[in-house]
Amino acid sequence: MRSNEAGVPLLFQGQVRAGDGAALAGAIVEIWHADDEGFYSQFAPSLPEWNLRGTVVADDQGNYSIRTVQPAPYQIPTDGSCGRLIRAAGWHAWRPAHLHLKVSAVGHQLVTTQLYFKDGSHVADDIASAVKPELILDPTPVSDSTGREVTYDFVLDKA
């Protein structure tokens, strides 16, 4: 992220394990998300090309830690066919704030998911209907009041 990245700092951390509970050392956690204004790099010309996108390798105990900022909700495009459908159905065009993740480890199935934020705007009425209770994060304030943190563990099935 940019050195002056706007938004609430977020520490996103956890562990990647196999179905039997064994830590998956060297698991790969890929993350990407919108910024504090709801814009994604590579879609908003004013943002650096790989802003708020990254890859982290889990340590020997399968632990990962990512320092980022909490993203904002955003509107999907409302022009063209998509916009006509939204208007005809009387829907809004908002997605709740979320993190995109791909988690992988050798010999295990890839997990691709989105994780949402408890009590966030549009969690209850996501235009994509993608929010599920098990995908909702509940970050807590960091003890020194410099942001929020959340722990989320991934369990990967064997391939």
Brief characterization of the structure:
The protein has 159 residues and is mainly beta. Helices cover 6% and strands 36% of the residues.
Q: What does it look like?
A:
It is a single chain. This protein is mainly beta and 159 residues long. It is 6% helix and 36% strand. It has one helix at 80-89, and strands at 9-18, 28-33, 53-57, 63-69, 74-75, 94-95, 98-104, 111-117, 136-137, 140-141, 148-151, 154-156. Strands 1, 4, 10, 11 and 12 form a five-stranded mixed beta sheet that branches. Strands 3-2-7-8-9 form a five-stranded mixed beta sheet, with no helix packed on it. Strand 10 and strand 11 (148-151) form a beta hairpin. The model has no long low-confidence stretch (mean pLDDT 96).
Rounded to an integer, what's the Rg over CA atoms?
17 Å
Regions with little confidence, pLDDT below 50 for 5+ residues = none
Q: From the helix content, strand content and strand pairing, which structural class follows? A: mainly beta
- Give the strand content: 35-45%
Structure annotation, total helices: 1
Most strands sheet: 5 strands, mixed
Distance between the termini: 33 Å
Tally of strands: 12
The residue fraction in helices comes out at under 10%
The H-and-E topology, N to C, reads as: EEEEEHEEEEEEE
Chain-averaged pLDDT: 96
Shape: globular
Any chance you could write out the topology, listing elements then pairs?
Layout: E1 9-18, E2 28-33, E3 53-57, E4 63-69, E5 74-75, H1 80-89, E6 94-95, E7 98-104, E8 111-117, E9 136-137, E10 140-141, E11 148-151, E12 154-156
Parallel strand pairs: 1-11, 1-12, 8-9
Antiparallel strand pairs: 1-4, 2-3, 2-7, 5-6, 7-8, 10-11
